[in-house]
Structures are given as structure tokens and as C-alpha cells.
Design goal:
The protein is built from five helices and two strands, in the order ββααααα. It is mainly alpha-helical. A hairpin with a 6-residue loop joins β1 and β2 (12-15).
């Protein structure tokens, strides 16, 4: 992961390795696969490193659409890094479980019910 300034008219350059990007792909289900590939061209250095405009033209989308996808993927990467750091600090045998906010109450109730049965 690298973040630098000012490459080819970009305000920030958010780069990942191929392996880092590949680990994120399963987390990007809400993003169109073509946009993911467009973002890969921006985020994973390949030597040619086309601009946002060139990539947008290749995928028939706007430059802003490519930039927005890169931002979403970078945010996913940052969230993934935070989750991995939290997992590293859990006691042996413990697991960190993430659920959507709308399911938190249901999960807590299931845990309480299971705890009462085991008592």
C-alpha cells in the first residue's frame, strides 16, 4: 500500500499490490465488475499507468465514476486493515463477528437465549 501526491493530475495516488487488491474483490460485491477492473488499472501499478480519463474512456464511464470507485475501494481497504488489526488482538479461540446494525439486536437475543440454555 502506498499513498503519494500529484501523479498525472491526480490529487492522491492510492496504490495496492495485486495480492492486496485480489483480497478485496470478494468484499466489493456491490460494485460493478467493470468498475472494479477500471479501479484496478488505477490502483495496481503496471508500468503504463493510464490516467483516470484514459481508463474512463476505455470503460465508457466518466472520470468521476472511476475516481469514486477508487475512493470506495480504498475505504474498503482501510476498513479491512482495521478489522485485521482488531483480529490480531483477540485472545486465542475468540472470534470477531460483524453484523449489520439492523441485526445487532437479533444476534444479541440469540446469544442471551443460548447462554440461558447452557446455564
Amino acid at each position: 500500500m502506498q499513498e503519494t501526491k500529484g501523479r498525472r493530475g491526480r490529487t492522491k495516488d492510492k496504490t495496492l499490490t495485486d495480492a492486496e487488491f485480489d483480497r478485496l474483490v470478494p468484499l466489493l460485491k456491490a460494485i460493478d465488475p467493470q468498475r472494479i477492473e477500471a479501479a484496478r488499472l488505477v490502483m495496481v501499478p503496471s508500468g503504463g499507468d493510464p490516467t483516470f480519463v484514459e481508463i474512463a474512456q476505455r470503460f465508457n464511464v466518466t472520470r468521476q465514476a472511476v475516481q469514486n470507485t477508487v475512493k470506495r475501494i480504498w475505504k474498503t481497504y482501510e476498513d479491512w486493515q482495521e478489522a485485521e488489526a482488531r483480529k490480531a488482538h483477540l485472545p486465542d479461540g475468540w472470534e470477531h463477528i460483524a453484523v449489520p446494525p439492523e441485526l445487532v439486536h437479533q444476534v444479541r437475543e440469540l446469544i442471551k437465549a443460548d447462554y440461558k440454555v447452557k446455564k
